[in-house]
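Objective 1.3, modelling of assemblies. Example input:
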Amino acid sequence: MVNEKRGLPSFFMTGSCAEFYFPPLRRLLEEYILQTKGEEVNLAEDSNARFKAVQENTHVVVSFFDLRTQAYHEKILKLVFGVSDYWYHYEFAKSRGQIHWHQLSWREDRQPHQLLHEAREDGCEEEEYAARLSQWADETFAMTALHPAGNDEEGQPRKDLWPPPEGTAEPISDDRDPLVKMLMQIAATQDAILEDHLLLVNRVGLHSCSDYCLRTPRHPEQGLQPRERICRMEFGSEFHPGKKVHSNPEIVEDHNGAPRLEMPRDHPRVVQHSRYQLQSNGNVPVVSGGSTHATWPLNEDYCRTMLLLHWPSWFDIQEVKGDTQSWIDRFKDFFASDDCPTFVKAQVAKARRYADHPQEPVFEEDEEDDAVEAEEQPDWVDVYAGRTKYMRV
Ligand SMILES: [Zn+2]
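Predicted structure (tokens):
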């Protein structure tokens, strides 16, 4: 299709590798270590050994990820996302050495360009363009920016199912955490699937600004307080976080001036996503997730994520943290111990340094482009990985 000059790609996509979570990769590494070193390791149970195995056998990880990416193209991208042609290349993240890919994808039906072309032929106003594009994304990918909690009988959002600060939902208890469940554990009933979607959005589908996304504008901007930073992911600014709620789809310009579809939104922080993408990640077990970016002061989400990821060989969450202690307090003990990986210590030190000296930029200027690309992906993508991260329609 590229050579036939049949038009622009339909999507830009990115996929990354959840090397600590793919069960087949674990088994492969166990077998490899057994055959090459004669050592028996249990990578499902021993997280230290898992970390070491991944670090020392990147050639195995990369080969596995390559095969998995090829299978993903054949089995998911073509069938679910209607992609007929694609071009991708692998990159390795500077900070973690982690393999990932970026891709251009063409659909056989040449959407969404075909429908945009027709809208122009029909003499549509921008509103109608947005409506048609939004309908297509909804019907084709179950794409949405609405909170899955839905509305009550009076048509008001069910804020009792939204987490604070916008709503009043109780925190998700550890035994209901959708991130420590595999999809195969979710009953195939409408209610169970809907609840899973709700929990996933509450857990990982709400954008929270942090030092990670907030940037000092290069030029003064109206309406901002002195030194107020703005969110690169278009979720408002430091003191006015979130997007505006609206009931009709809109085409808006992002900070690079590129037009972007904003689907109807009833919650200021829901990340526009495809429900298929969020839920239907087959055999990838969904562990951890949450925030992987340190903030200072420390927050519960980061501490919890780091503890669950790096606490040596835990079976039961009780082993990591008792009921009486907060994740932050538990993390402080862990942080002081030798079990805490050096890079976690470095992340925290960096966040603390930045909080103490906010005038120093966290990233070098020339790192910006790569960093932006790598960072624009939501946290949960690391967990779901090997999948499309990003679909801009
Ligand atoms: Zn943000």
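The two ends are 19 Å apart (CA to CA).
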